[in-house]
Amino acid sequence: MDAQDIKQDLLTELLSENEIQARLKEIAGQIEKDYQGKDLLLVGVLKGAIMVVADLARAMSRHVEMDWMAVSSYGYGTTSSGVVRILKDLDQDIKDRNVLIVEDIVDSGLTLSWLQKNLISRGPTSVEVMALLRKPEALTVELEPKYIGFDIPNEFVVGYGLDYGEKYRNLRSVASLHPDVYSGD
Ligand code: 5GP
Prior knowledge:
With 185 residues, the protein is α/β, with parallel strands linked by helices. The protein has a single domain, classed as Rossmann fold. 23% of the residues lie in helices and 29% in strands. It has helices spanning 17-34, 50-58, 110-120, 179-182, and strands spanning 11-15, 41-46, 65-73, 84-88, 98-106, 126-134, 147-151, 157-158, 174-177. The strands form 2 sheets. Strands 4-3-2-5-6-7 form a 6-stranded mixed sheet, sandwiched between helices. It has a 3-stranded antiparallel sheet with strand order 1-9-8. The longest helix has 18 residues, at 17-34. The two termini are 27 Å apart. The structure holds guanosine-5'-monophosphate.
Protein backbone atom coordinates (compact mmCIF):
# COMPACT_ATOMS: atom_id res chain seq x y z
CA MET A 1 0.00 0.00 0.00
CA ASP A 2 1.06 3.60 -0.60
CA ALA A 3 2.86 5.00 2.49
CA GLN A 4 0.90 8.26 1.96
CA ASP A 5 -2.44 6.49 2.40
CA ILE A 6 -4.25 7.73 5.54
CA LYS A 7 -6.25 4.51 5.75
CA GLN A 8 -3.13 2.69 6.95
CA ASP A 9 -2.95 4.79 10.13
CA LEU A 10 -4.29 3.83 13.55
CA LEU A 11 -7.66 5.57 13.36
CA THR A 12 -11.08 4.74 14.75
CA GLU A 13 -13.97 6.63 13.17
CA LEU A 14 -16.03 8.62 15.68
CA LEU A 15 -18.22 10.68 13.37
CA SER A 16 -18.92 9.91 9.73
CA GLU A 17 -19.06 12.48 6.96
CA ASN A 18 -22.86 12.08 6.81
CA GLU A 19 -23.32 12.60 10.54
CA ILE A 20 -21.21 15.76 10.45
CA GLN A 21 -23.01 17.21 7.43
CA ALA A 22 -26.47 16.42 8.84
CA ARG A 23 -25.66 18.09 12.15
CA LEU A 24 -24.19 21.16 10.41
CA LYS A 25 -27.41 21.55 8.41
CA GLU A 26 -29.44 21.51 11.64
CA ILE A 27 -27.19 24.09 13.26
CA ALA A 28 -27.21 26.27 10.13
CA GLY A 29 -31.02 26.30 10.27
CA GLN A 30 -30.95 27.29 13.92
CA ILE A 31 -28.46 30.08 13.23
CA GLU A 32 -30.61 31.39 10.39
CA LYS A 33 -33.57 31.61 12.76
CA ASP A 34 -31.61 33.17 15.60
CA TYR A 35 -30.00 35.83 13.40
CA GLN A 36 -33.02 36.63 11.26
CA GLY A 37 -32.88 40.29 10.20
CA LYS A 38 -29.39 40.74 11.67
CA ASP A 39 -25.95 40.86 10.12
CA LEU A 40 -23.73 37.85 10.73
CA LEU A 41 -19.96 37.58 10.68
CA LEU A 42 -18.48 34.12 11.06
CA VAL A 43 -15.01 34.22 12.61
CA GLY A 44 -13.20 30.99 11.86
CA VAL A 45 -10.28 29.98 14.00
CA LEU A 46 -7.45 28.80 11.77
CA LYS A 47 -6.57 26.25 10.79
CA GLY A 48 -8.81 23.66 12.41
CA ALA A 49 -12.12 25.37 11.71
CA ILE A 50 -11.73 25.80 7.96
CA MET A 51 -13.88 22.81 7.05
CA VAL A 52 -16.56 23.70 9.63
CA VAL A 53 -16.79 27.30 8.39
CA ALA A 54 -16.87 26.22 4.75
CA ASP A 55 -19.66 23.66 5.22
CA LEU A 56 -21.64 25.66 7.80
CA ALA A 57 -21.66 28.77 5.61
CA ARG A 58 -22.72 26.78 2.56
CA ALA A 59 -25.55 25.14 4.51
CA MET A 60 -27.10 28.61 4.91
CA SER A 61 -29.05 30.48 2.28
CA ARG A 62 -28.71 33.91 3.93
CA HIS A 63 -25.90 36.41 3.45
CA VAL A 64 -22.98 35.71 5.71
CA GLU A 65 -19.50 37.18 5.95
CA MET A 66 -16.37 35.33 6.96
CA ASP A 67 -13.17 36.42 8.62
CA TRP A 68 -10.33 34.44 10.13
CA MET A 69 -8.09 34.50 13.15
CA ALA A 70 -5.10 32.37 13.93
CA VAL A 71 -4.16 31.89 17.55
CA SER A 72 -1.66 29.68 19.19
CA SER A 73 -1.50 28.49 22.74
CA TYR A 74 2.08 28.38 23.95
CA GLY A 75 2.42 24.68 24.26
CA TYR A 76 3.37 21.61 22.38
CA GLY A 77 1.80 18.32 21.54
CA THR A 78 -1.73 17.42 22.40
CA THR A 79 -2.55 19.65 25.38
CA SER A 80 -3.36 23.34 25.63
CA SER A 81 -1.59 25.69 28.06
CA GLY A 82 -4.20 28.46 28.10
CA VAL A 83 -1.72 31.20 27.19
CA VAL A 84 -2.86 32.51 23.87
CA ARG A 85 -1.07 34.55 21.24
CA ILE A 86 -2.65 36.09 18.12
CA LEU A 87 -0.80 34.96 15.00
CA LYS A 88 -3.28 36.48 12.56
CA ASP A 89 -5.88 39.03 13.54
CA LEU A 90 -9.20 39.83 11.88
CA ASP A 91 -9.10 41.88 8.68
CA GLN A 92 -12.05 43.99 9.80
CA ASP A 93 -13.42 46.05 12.64
CA ILE A 94 -16.15 44.15 14.49
CA LYS A 95 -17.68 47.13 16.27
CA ASP A 96 -21.50 46.81 16.20
CA ARG A 97 -21.34 43.47 14.41
CA ASN A 98 -22.91 40.13 15.33
CA VAL A 99 -19.95 37.82 15.60
CA LEU A 100 -20.13 34.05 15.69
CA ILE A 101 -16.81 32.43 16.50
CA VAL A 102 -16.55 29.05 14.77
CA GLU A 103 -14.20 26.56 16.38
CA ASP A 104 -13.36 22.97 15.63
CA ILE A 105 -13.14 21.67 19.18
CA VAL A 106 -13.43 22.87 22.76
CA ASP A 107 -11.17 20.86 25.01
CA SER A 108 -10.21 22.75 28.19
CA GLY A 109 -12.05 25.76 26.72
CA LEU A 110 -9.16 28.07 27.59
CA THR A 111 -8.46 29.14 24.02
CA LEU A 112 -12.08 29.98 23.30
CA SER A 113 -12.81 31.82 26.52
CA TRP A 114 -9.72 33.95 25.93
CA LEU A 115 -10.77 34.62 22.34
CA GLN A 116 -14.32 35.47 23.29
CA LYS A 117 -13.14 38.03 25.86
CA ASN A 118 -10.70 39.49 23.38
CA LEU A 119 -13.41 39.99 20.74
CA ILE A 120 -15.94 41.36 23.26
CA SER A 121 -13.41 44.09 24.16
CA ARG A 122 -13.69 45.38 20.56
CA GLY A 123 -17.31 46.53 20.98
CA PRO A 124 -19.36 44.13 18.86
CA THR A 125 -23.14 43.85 19.25
CA SER A 126 -22.78 40.17 20.17
CA VAL A 127 -20.18 37.43 20.33
CA GLU A 128 -21.35 33.83 20.39
CA VAL A 129 -19.55 30.55 19.84
CA MET A 130 -20.23 27.56 17.65
CA ALA A 131 -18.00 24.55 18.24
CA LEU A 132 -18.27 21.39 16.21
CA LEU A 133 -16.89 19.20 19.00
CA ARG A 134 -16.80 19.46 22.76
CA LYS A 135 -14.90 17.29 25.22
CA PRO A 136 -16.12 16.68 28.79
CA GLU A 137 -13.37 18.79 30.35
CA ALA A 138 -14.82 21.87 28.62
CA LEU A 139 -17.76 21.73 30.99
CA THR A 140 -15.54 22.86 33.84
CA VAL A 141 -14.76 26.29 32.39
CA GLU A 142 -17.00 29.29 32.21
CA LEU A 143 -17.77 28.99 28.53
CA GLU A 144 -21.16 28.33 27.08
CA PRO A 145 -21.05 27.85 23.32
CA LYS A 146 -24.42 28.72 21.83
CA TYR A 147 -24.14 25.89 19.29
CA ILE A 148 -22.43 22.53 19.77
CA GLY A 149 -22.15 19.88 17.08
CA PHE A 150 -21.27 16.83 19.16
CA ASP A 151 -20.08 15.95 22.63
CA ILE A 152 -17.26 13.45 22.29
CA PRO A 153 -15.19 11.36 24.71
CA ASN A 154 -11.92 12.67 26.07
CA GLU A 155 -9.75 11.30 23.27
CA PHE A 156 -7.38 13.00 20.88
CA VAL A 157 -9.22 13.29 17.59
CA VAL A 158 -8.21 14.18 14.06
CA GLY A 159 -9.90 14.82 10.74
CA TYR A 160 -12.35 17.35 9.29
CA GLY A 161 -9.84 20.15 9.83
CA LEU A 162 -8.24 18.77 13.00
CA ASP A 163 -4.62 17.77 12.72
CA TYR A 164 -1.89 15.88 14.37
CA GLY A 165 1.44 17.33 13.23
CA GLU A 166 -0.42 19.05 10.33
CA LYS A 167 -1.68 15.70 9.05
CA TYR A 168 -5.24 14.32 8.84
CA ARG A 169 -6.98 17.67 8.25
CA ASN A 170 -8.26 16.36 4.93
CA LEU A 171 -10.16 13.40 6.39
CA ARG A 172 -13.90 13.83 5.77
CA SER A 173 -14.77 12.12 9.05
CA VAL A 174 -13.59 12.67 12.62
CA ALA A 175 -11.53 9.84 14.05
CA SER A 176 -9.65 9.14 17.22
CA LEU A 177 -5.95 8.64 16.87
CA HIS A 178 -4.44 5.69 18.69
CA PRO A 179 -2.34 6.93 21.66
CA ASP A 180 0.66 4.95 20.32
CA VAL A 181 0.87 7.49 17.49
CA TYR A 182 1.43 10.52 19.78
CA SER A 183 2.77 8.93 22.95
CA GLY A 184 6.21 10.35 22.12
CA ASP A 185 5.02 13.91 23.04
P1 5GP B 1 -8.51 24.20 24.56
O1 5GP B 1 -7.93 25.56 24.77
O2 5GP B 1 -10.02 24.18 24.50
O3 5GP B 1 -7.97 23.19 25.55
O4 5GP B 1 -7.93 23.68 23.19
C1 5GP B 1 -8.44 24.10 22.00
C2 5GP B 1 -7.52 23.77 20.85
O5 5GP B 1 -6.69 22.63 21.15
C3 5GP B 1 -8.35 23.38 19.67
O6 5GP B 1 -8.70 24.50 18.90
C4 5GP B 1 -7.44 22.44 18.95
O7 5GP B 1 -6.57 23.17 18.14
C5 5GP B 1 -6.63 21.78 20.04
N1 5GP B 1 -7.22 20.48 20.41
C6 5GP B 1 -7.87 20.17 21.56
N2 5GP B 1 -8.27 18.88 21.55
C7 5GP B 1 -7.87 18.37 20.36
C8 5GP B 1 -8.00 17.08 19.74
O8 5GP B 1 -8.57 16.12 20.26
N3 5GP B 1 -7.46 16.95 18.51
C9 5GP B 1 -6.83 17.96 17.86
N4 5GP B 1 -6.33 17.71 16.65
N5 5GP B 1 -6.68 19.19 18.41
C10 5GP B 1 -7.20 19.38 19.64
